[in-house]
Write a structure and sequence with these properties.
With 362 residues, the protein is α/β, with parallel strands linked by helices. It has helices spanning 36-48, 57-60, 107-113, 125-128, 131-145, 149-168, 173-177, 180-211, 232-238, 240-246, 267-270, 273-293, 306-309, 312-324, 339-346, and strands at 2-9, 17-19, 25-29, 67-75, 82-90, 95-99, 102-103, 116-119, 218-223, 257-262, 265-266, 300-303, 328-332, 350-356, 359-361. Helix 12 (273-293) runs parallel beside helix 14 (312-324). The chain has a domain at 1-115 and 298-362: P-loop containing nucleotide triphosphate hydrolases (Rossmann fold), CATH 3.40.50. It has a six-stranded antiparallel β-sheet, covered by helices on one side. The chain contains 15 helices and 15 strands. The structure holds adenosine-5'-triphosphate and magnesium ion.
């Protein structure tokens, strides 16, 4: 899916912004504070209900406004079909989400329509930090790759919330265990979907690493979140005392992790910061490869300040690969945009837009 037009008001310093991105490459240039990252955040927010910098509405709702509105006109390049999505959010918390002129009840309807991926200056957190970031990464791919994933995940969360609530109020064993079958059924299915996806992802990561002569042998391993010598239902039974002590369920796919190994050692222990950044971009490119395998088609890839993350050659390579695979890229940079990308705009294979005070110029 491609964005034909995007409009934003009441979002950070964006007010009355209307943007018509290029189907391939759009460069957003402009001085510090002109609103480049805000444009990418606003697109991300429309597809997910939060931004890649913050989940707090008060951070991105314009200081002097009581509401924000975001709207996108989308086009599917495979069949030319057009779609519209819109979000309005009031300071008092009211949210309205529309997809093709109908009210939508969850952001998954928008996310399904517009797969958005953000490559941001702190993307190395994927390697460096705890498992939560990696679960989110994995689940982005599973969500787009498998139509059932969201529903299975929701059912699992519902059962988990109920079991944890029972643990918190020291309910009887019978009551706590009554949630185990639902948790085990949905959790095992969730884990299977993740495992299937991570295997395909691992193949693409290997290919991607080889294609740039990345000097490490890359492996991915999905850890399910419970002791694999037992089924999830057994683990929930045998670990009940621990869960009672912790007053929460500490086994299950909500504790999963995706281990990223370079030459058999965890990448975060082994690789330099720069190598970690290159690797993170390889992981994202591999995820975009999976999207093509799953016939989801193309994504909208937001590259915020790529030049501050990667050296010019690597930054150019990443954008080049995104474009070669047919995805739409929106790339920001104050002074760090590689020349090769600027050249694409001069010969009409891309569009450069100068941001000034939250407005878009030519
Ligand atoms: N809630 C808000 N309401 C109004 N303005 C805001 C809000 N949050 C941030 N801003 C302002 O919005 C402007 C745009 O910020 P943004 O991060 O998009 O700039 P940028 O062009 O990406 O800059 P840089 O080159 O430094 O990355 C900044 O001047 C910032 O102070
Ligand atoms: Mg910025």
């Amino acid at each position: 899916m491609l964005i034909n037009q995007f409009a934003a008001s009441g979002f950070r310093n964006l007010d009355g912004l209307v943007l018509e991105p290029h189907p391939a490459l759009t460069l957003l240039t402009g001085s510090n504070g002109s609103g480049k990252s805000s444009v990418l955040e606003a697109i991300y927010c429309l597809a997910s209900g939060h931004t890649f910098r913050t989940r707090r509405v008060r951070d991105y709702l314009s200081f002097d406004q009581d509401a924000l509105t975001l709207a996108a006109q989308l086009r599917d390049p495979r069949n030319g079909s057009e779609h519209r999505c819109g979000l309005s959010r009031q300071r008092d918390g009211e949210v309205q989400l529309r997809v093709d002129f109908e009210t939508a009840t969850s952001f998954s309807a928008v996310a399904r329509l517009m797969p958005v991926k953000a490559l941001t200056p702190d993307s190395h957190r994927l390697i460096e930090q705890g498992p939560e970031e990696r679960r989110r990464f994995l689940d982005w791919g599973c969500f787009h790759g498998s139509p059932d994933f969201m529903e299975v995940w929701r059912r699992y969360r519902r059962a988990l919330t109920q079991r944890n609530e029972a643990l918190r109020r020291h309910a009887s064993d019978d009551e706590i265990n009554s949630w185990n079958p639902a948790l085990a059924t949905e959790g095992s299915r969730l884990s299977e979907l993740r495992l299937h996806y991570s295997k395909n992802l691992a193949l693409h990561v290997k290919k991607r690493a080889q294609s740039i002569d990345f000097p490490f042998h890359m492996e991915l391993e999905m850890r399910s979140g419970w002791d694999q010598s037992e089924s999830l239902e057994e683990a929930l039974g045998t670990r009940l005392e621990t869960h009672r002590r912790m007053r929460t369920t500490t086994d299950g796919p909500h504790r999963a992790d995706l281990l990223v190994r370079a030459d058999k050692t965890l990448a975060r222990q082994h690789l330099s910061r720069g190598q970690q950044k290159v690797l993170v971009h390889l992981l994202h490119l591999a995820q975009l490869d999976c999207l093509r395998d799953d016939t989801v088609g193309t994504a909208i890839v937001l590259c915020d300040d790529l030049g501050s993350e990667l050296d010019a050659d690597n930054a150019e390579h990443v954008v080049d690969q995104i474009l070669t695979a047919g995805h739409q890229a929106l790339v920001t940079g104050a002074s760090s945009i590689p020349d090769a990308l600027l050249d694409r705009c001069s010969d009409h294979r891309g569009l450069a837009i100068q941001m000034r005070g939250g407005k878009a110029g030519a």
